[in-house]
Amino acid sequence: MTAYRDRTEAGRVLADRLTALIGEPDVVVLGLVRGGVPVARVIAERLGAPLDVLVVRKLGMPWAPEVAFGALGPAGVRVLNDAVASQLDPGDIAGVQHREQEELDRREQCYRAGRAPLDLTGRIAVIVDDGLATGASARAAVQVARHLGARRVVVAVPVGSQEAYEMLAVEADQVICVQRPPTFAAVGAYYDDFHEVSDDEVTEALTATA
Asked: What is the DSSP track for 165-178?
């Protein structure tokens, strides 16, 4: 089990697993904000495909935020896990949704300034993150991508837990996960440099590949 030097190196390793998509029409590489964007940037450059961001906000249980009862995406997309959401009253759902919608709107405004709304109709969406712990964000991203019209959804990550990989294998058309350590620690444990990605870094990546 080896650590990646940084997200750029992780992107290079991951891009080697995605070369079958080179020359494939309608591919779009989507970095999950924020840590997935530097990884996705390398992949987009290697594939010669456009880079964009997919802003997804998990809707977490008020008393257990890591347990998602749904997710929000751009263009008003809302996905609910009815089995979990049914444990909440409408007021709780509305409160969490309002808070997460505000943050989603802020990020969309920040990253999409001057860019067209995300439209995945008929596209092959390659969803990239810097790692999978629970997989909840990536699962939400897959569902949002389908709601936005993607005809095929591929999840690509440098490292992830076996449990998250198996969950996503049911949701996505393909999951590429380079390393699946038997005992999974936090994603940052598999990087030498795992700095917090800033809004400026995301914006710079999008501008550089536009």
From this structure: HHHHHHHSSEEEEE
- Same domain membership, residue 200 and residue 127: yes
Same domain, 102 and 189: no
Asked if 201 and 161 sit in the same domain, the reply is: yes
Instruction: Extract the tokens encoding 61.
Output: 């249980």
Q: Residue 126 belongs to what domain range? A: 7-54+119-208
With beta carbons less than 8 A apart as the criterion, state whether 115 and 203 touch.
no
Q: pLDDT per residue over 149-191, tens digit each?
A: 999 999 999 999 998 899 899 999 999 999 999 898 889 999 9
The answer to whether residue 2 is domain-embedded is no
**In whole angstroms, how far apart are CA 49 and each of 74, 112, 203, 205, 210?**
21, 18, 17, 14, 10
What are the pLDDT digits (tens) for 128-149? 999 998 887 888 899 889 988 9
Confidence of residue 1 (pLDDT cuts 50, 70, 90): low
Look up the pTM and report it.
0.88
Type and span of the H or E element at 103: helix 90-111
Number of domains in the chain: 2
Co-location of 138 and 179 in the same domain = yes
Q: How confident is the model at residue 67 (pLDDT cuts 50, 70, 90)?
A: confident
Instruction: Name the CA dihedral angle for 127, 112, 196, 50, rounded to a multiple of 10 degrees.
Output: 40
- Whole-number average pLDDT of the chain: 90
State whether 200 and 157 are in the same domain: yes
